[in-house]
Amino acid sequence: MAEGNGQSATLEEKGYNGKLLNVNLTTGEITVEQPDEALYRQYLGGYGIGARMLWDRVPQGADPLGPENMLGMFAGLLTGTPLFGQRWQVVCKSPLTNGWGDANCGGDFGGVLKLSGWDGIMFFGKAEKPVYLLIENDKVELRDASDQWGQLAIQNEMELKSRHGKRASIANIGPSGETLSLISGVCNDHGRLAARSGVGAVMGSKNLKAVVTVADRKIIAQTPEINKMLRSNLDDFVKPLKDFFHTFGTTGITAASALNGDSPVKNWGGVGVVDFPDAKQIDGGTAINPKMEKSYGCWRCPMACGAESVESTNPKYPYPHHTHRPEYEAMAAFGTMNLMAEPDALIYLNHLSNEYGFDVISAGGAISMAIECYENGIITKEDTDGLELTWGNAEAIVEFLKMMGERRGIGDVFADGVKVAAEKLGKGAEQYAMHIGGQELPMHDPKLQPEYHTTYKLDPTPARHTQYEGNKRLGKVPPAPQDFKDYSGRGEHHKAASEYMHVVNSGGMCQFIMMAANTANIPSWFNAVTGWDMDLDEIMDVGERIANLRMAYEVREGGNPRKRAVPARVTGESTEATHTGPLENVKLNTETLEVDFLKACGWDPETCKPSKVKLESVGLKEVAEALHA
Fold this sequence. Notes:
The protein is of the alpha+beta class. The protein has three domains: about 20-215, Aldehyde ferredoxin oxidoreductase, N-terminal domain (Aldehyde Ferredoxin Oxidoreductase,  A, domain 1, 4-Layer Sandwich); about 240-435, Aldehyde Ferredoxin Oxidoreductase Protein, subunit A, domain 2; about 450-625, Aldehyde Ferredoxin Oxidoreductase Protein, subunit A, domain 3. The protein has 26 helices and 16 strands.
């Protein structure tokens, strides 16, 4: 039993609790850790603190699906406060990439975890049988979850809410996590996923079905001064951007992105204006929003970019009432990547992914690969149990996702992502596996935004679009060249932009809110809930420290992002997607992009290893000594 404070919010409390939970699932022992304030000031929260814990506590060379690996769930510094804090992260050694792993999530779990008195939870070991962790303020205990194993994620969430009350927030896994699918995530809020890096498989490997949090407090560090600041800063929001996201969510960019070169088409081998002119049929405003009932937001979000559906009237695609509106990545992964323009099918595919616990990016990419393999005779109609697995075939795509979720037939081959599928299939299947470092590519083409190439290839967790955002309002991110075909002079910009995103993520802030808010106020937000005196320089130092620690971990575990292969369709080396359309003849100068970025970071241009001088300069002396021993 762990003890917490169990107190209501006071004017004196800070935006962090100063307490972490350690849970040994092998022994059942639960202990409380009370870090020094310096840990929060140096790493903020989220995967900042997660990076510190993963480096310190997971032995070098640990099996990602073994008991030595850590599954960490960490709320951001501002999460649970009035100041734009909704996000939380899962951290582990990734079974998908065998190196650094993290996944970012919205919903309500992060806020409720903080309100219950805890800044994070670290799980080690493996339970003998399925369990879930129950947190009720200062009361923490493991409970039997044998009767829940096999339940779909949203179904399980509703079951646990029936036991522990509607105020309970649940983070859990679906069947894909239980069967150790390498593309499974951790779910919360009936369909929000910490989806990437295979974090759901790590949770499943520990026989941990769910974490249930119940809190008495309503909000942390709420004072009249903070409320006044909040109202003032909300007035600083860029209204058109806020209104757009609130009205359409990210779905609002789907059709345009398919046609302007942003969204990959036909498994990265097509051109939207040629291969998918039907993209307008899945426009967010005209095709998806009419099927929604009400707007929805993550925990106390001022933007509320989500929406929930009415009940489906289409018997082929029976999504239930209150199904989440698909986000852009789901719409593009299942839609533009597969030339599929059936709105009801897209909503249903998103719902099924949430129930199974699949990363929609990876699941959609796996289906695209399967279609190309079918088209080219690598898999046959006999392999697919009679499915006509062809471009745009909505019914077949839905059934194939179910086969993946149930590890049934050929679905089992693709349930661990495209890299594993290619290894199992052989016969040249690898040419259709669109991944970097084992992780399926996001739905933004770096030929249109060059920094995405460097991010996808060189970030410790590969193929991640949320690790870059060139925020101009912060005042610490140098501008990039305006011409997207100009590849020189982007290194310093990209370094600062990625370190800014480490601050955003570790601070628990939503990237979309940060696009609309005046981010120059970030020091004021942090200081208001901590009593610190941070300025922009110190905040960017935190981002650089986190960047170096994440990369140091990746290198320590044998990774070298510089050696990751990038599909020729992505760089423009292959002209399949660049023979016409908005990206005609575009070919990335990958060497310039990569070397400029690595030199700006102070990382070795050949190994990505952070230099000893760089690590010491950001306060990581002990990491420098270990990495350069």
